[in-house]
Structure formats: C-alpha cells, structure tokens
Write a structure and sequence with these properties.
It is built from 5 helices and 7 strands. It has a domain at about 5-100: Arc Repressor Mutant, subunit A (Orthogonal Bundle). The chain is an alpha+beta fold and about 160 residues long. It is about 30% helix and about 15% strand. The chain is globular, with a radius of gyration of 17 Å. The strands form 3 sheets. A 3-stranded mixed sheet has the order 6-5-7, with no helix packed on it. A two-stranded antiparallel ribbon has the order 1-2. The longest helix is centred in the middle third of the chain and has 13 residues, at about 70-80.
Length: about 160
Amino acid sequence: MTTIVKTGEGRYGGGDMQSPDALTDLFRANGRKITAQRQCIFRALEGDVTHPSAEKVYEKVRTQMPNVSLKTVYQTLHDLSELGQITALDLGTGAARFDPNIEAAHHHVVCRGCGKVRDVDAEFPNLQVPSGAAPGFSVLSAEVVFRGLCDECQRDRQ
C-alpha cells in the first residue's frame, strides 16, 4: 500500500513526499532492488527541507549504517530522481543538491556564505525570454535562483 506523508503546512513548500514505505513499494514496482541501505536513505530524506547534497545524505545515513557507500547514496538519489520523487538541482554550490518538493512549482534562494538552499514560493507570471534572445530554443519553463545571505551568515558578518 502506498501512502503519502502530509503535514499541515506542507513541509516541502506545499508539495508531498512519499513516505519511506511508499518509496520502498515504488522501487519494488519498478524492478529496483530494495536494500537496508536504500531504506535508510529514504528515512534520511524524509522531512529534510535543506536540499541536501549526496555527501550530506551519506553523512546522515552513516550514523545509522556505517557500512553504506557513497556510491549507493548517489545511485539511490539518481533512482529517486529518475522515478520523479526528487529533483536534482545544480545551483552553483559546488555539488548537486536534491529537492524533495516535486509537487509545487517553486524557486530557490541560495546563501552565498554557507550554501544553504531553501524553497521560495513565488510566481513570476510575466517572466519570459525576450524574442530573439535564445535562437533555436523553445523555452518550456524557467527557474529563478535568488542569492544572498542567510540569517546566520548575516549575523556572523556583523
């Protein structure tokens, strides 16, 4: 049985993330192997709004399962992305980040000091590429990335 984890305010900026049990069912249904390591990775991602890198997921999982490999974490994150359960992001932070908010259209804000990433729930209905600026392309979507300093980095600089 597949269940959806939902909280009152939508911990992923309004989107829903499948529970670890539901992800296990999804992997099985798609012919992917289920291992204790993968299930631990699913649990590590649950409720994580930080858009973690594979390395951060690896660090978190290793506290519970020291024998997990970074390769397993990368492969599982890639599989989750392929199955549409997370989105791999390149936000210029030096490492791919993984976003569990796949339901709600949103943008991102990135801290220039520490690399923290958060969702920005905003719409830009008139955002478009000017005519002739992208010859040969048919633009299908746009993602806005804001950059600045988080509260912690602002305090550290004072």
